[in-house]
Design brief:
mainly beta, nine-stranded mixed beta sheet, four-stranded antiparallel beta sheet, 17 strands, globular
């Protein structure tokens, strides 16, 4: 019993002291976050984000053929595997990214997901990743009906970010956005989550404007102060784990957002209301 207790303490201590794990991240970009039923969305599976302590959008190589995967979870919870449809958008094995298109026939919020679990050949490290992005299908883009379901359910990854705020409806410049960080299904507190606007360099060990530590419930919140693409990322390293070919495990989780100037469900409201929302 004493030996088991020491093992638990070592794991917790290892997680608390990990900082950020320096290995490549994966993320998924959707070319549109809001589209009409029947329209196609382009999904891009990226690898990189290795500079500036993982706080940028820089590409670094490409997921090796045979290790890439992509699926879309529909509003009713069904998962469609798009892995066989992924197209290599690079001339060289380590250039470009993987891409696929998806066409949905039901209104609601869809979740695109990719996971990765490999032992790195260049280091005795097992690398486990999870990436998500979201898009919505609606009957009309003029006044889309707000949907508040289809994004809160975890997928069961080792480390994953789950939106607390709606990642599509109600999202706009000046709004706060919250995520929950789950480690093996449990909220992970005191862990840094980075909210990275594309093209904006983060600075220091923790950039207080764009990074926050999770609270006791595993939740971190940042105000989205500009329109465009945002990458939300979190990292954990378990230096006590070991197995065939590895002596530690590095975990990463990402969410990609497209933040509009004005939230989509506010379109069609009075000019006064819209100006108040964008102040």
């Amino acid at each position: 019993m004493r030996k088991y207790g020491h093992r638990i303490f070592a794991v917790v201590a290892g997680l608390a002291l990990m900082g950020q794990a320096f290995a490549h991240d994966i993320w998924i970009e959707a070319n549109q976050s809001m589209l009409r039923i029947g329209e196609s969305v382009s999904l891009s599976l990226m690898l990189g984000n290795h500079g500036n302590q993982h706080r940028d959008f820089r590409l670094a190589s490409k997921i090796q053929a045979g290790q890439q995967n992509l699926s879309v979870i529909s509003p009713d919870g069904k998962s469609l595997d798009l892995t066989s449809n992924l197209v290599d958008n690079g001339y060289e094995p380590k250039e470009g990214f993987w891409g696929a298109t998806f066409q949905g026939d039901k209104a609601g919020i869809y979740q695109a997901v990719s996971t990765f679990d490999q032992v790195m050949s260049f280091a005795p490290v097992r690398d486990i990743k999870c990436a998500k992005t979201y898009f919505a299908l609606t009957k009309t883009l003029d006044s889309p009906q707000k949907v508040d379901v289809g994004f809160q359910k975890p997928i069961g990854a080792h480390l994953e970010l789950v939106p607390v705020s709606n990642p599509l409806f109600g999202l706009g410049v000046g709004t706060s956005f919250s995520v929950k960080l789950l480690y093996k299904g449990k909220p992970l507190k005191d862990s840094v989550v980075s909210f990275i606007p594309k093209g904006v360099p983060l600075s220091g060990e923790i950039d207080s404007k764009f990074e926050a530590k999770t609270d006791a419930k595993g939740v971190a919140t940042v105000t989205l102060d500009q329109a465009g693409q945002w990458l939300i990322a979190a990292h954990v390293k378990d230096s006590t784990a070991s197995g065939a070919g590895y002596k530690s495990i590095g975990y990463s989780a990402t969410i990609h957002l497209r933040v509009p100037n004005v939230c989509p469900c506010c379109i069609g409201q009075s000019e006064t209301t819209l100006s108040e929302l964008t102040l």
